[in-house]
Amino acid sequence: MIKIAVDAMGGDNSPKKVIDGIIHHYDKNKDIFYKIFGEEHKIINCIDNRIDKQNYHIVNTSKKVSSEDSPLEGAKRGKDTSMWLAIESVKKKDCDIVISAGNTGALLVISKLNLKMIENIDKPALSALWPNKKGMSVVLDLGANIECSSKNLFDFSVMGASLYKSLYPQETPNVALLNIGSEELKGNEMIKETYKKLNEKKSEDFNFKGYIEGNQLMHGDVNVIVADGFTGNVALKTAEGTANFMADELKKALSGTFIGKISSLLNISNLKKFKRRLDPRLYNGAIFIGLDSPVVKSHGGTDYIGFSNSLDVCCRIIKGNLIDKIKKNI
């Protein structure tokens, strides 16, 4: 049975959103145990006997990390916050993986204070799943490390490939470095040195495909896209903004005139497919990788569907033996 440590007090509309997400996930997964950290009376009211008591345990605490806290302030709130206790339960091996929709910076700091790095890895990376034309991509780092060395990028490449392989065990990922051009001579010295290292590494678990440019991110020819935290975060926010812009403009075009409304009715099935493809809830669940236990970050503003999907990511990571794969490949 997979055991998931859940910080129930992080993110908007918590703990209701978190508990509703657990219930939604539990309805399809009866073999999961949820160790829930937060205000017990609120959590019990939200559960309302919709989960078998053998599948969860509540650890009561009234303290939580605020979304307005700086990473250091979040850590200084003490060892009895719901976030700290959830992470500590993974450290003690009481649970297999931890998830929180709370403060991202505090989650990273508290995780690094409690959990050891995997041997030979210097920095953890923040990774996430992105849709592309052919399926999904793993993208990292998305902001955990603004400054990186070639070794860090090499490690991120191996960790990203291991994550993809654990989520999609039947596929062999193609790895590429995000760069300003696809030619071998393009980019700064750090990128070039990483290119050389990856080109020389022989692995059965991934193929190195060189460089990828920003306008190729969604093509689907590459499954693992690697960048430093600054570049990766800019790419993430740009992609999110572009998707929102497209959705808003399409909505205006189809609702602004009588012809547009008729057109939208005639294409209702295709529009639902389009909306579903761009629904961020389906891709919710960023992963801190590089630590000796996996840590999953749900978006703070998502709803219970999005949180449920991030719980599904937790299960796939454990079933796919992510940590063992990283240790083997690094």
Describe the fold and architecture.
The protein has an 11-stranded mixed β-sheet with strand order 3-2-1-4-11-10-5-6-9-7-8, with helices on both faces. Helix content is 44%, strand content 17%. It has helices at 16-26, 40-47, 71-76, 82-91, 104-114, 150-167, 189-200, 229-255, 258-266, 268-277, 304-319, 322-329; strands at 2-7, 32-38, 56-60, 97-100, 125-131, 136-140, 174-178, 207-212, 224-226, 286-289, 295-297. The protein is globular. It folds into 2 domains: 1-121 and 290-330, Isopropylmalate Dehydrogenase; 124-282, Isopropylmalate Dehydrogenase, CATH 3.40.718.10. The chain has 12 helices and 11 strands. The chain is α/β, with parallel strands linked by helices and 330 residues long. A hairpin with a 5-residue loop joins strand 10 (286-289) and strand 11 (295-297).
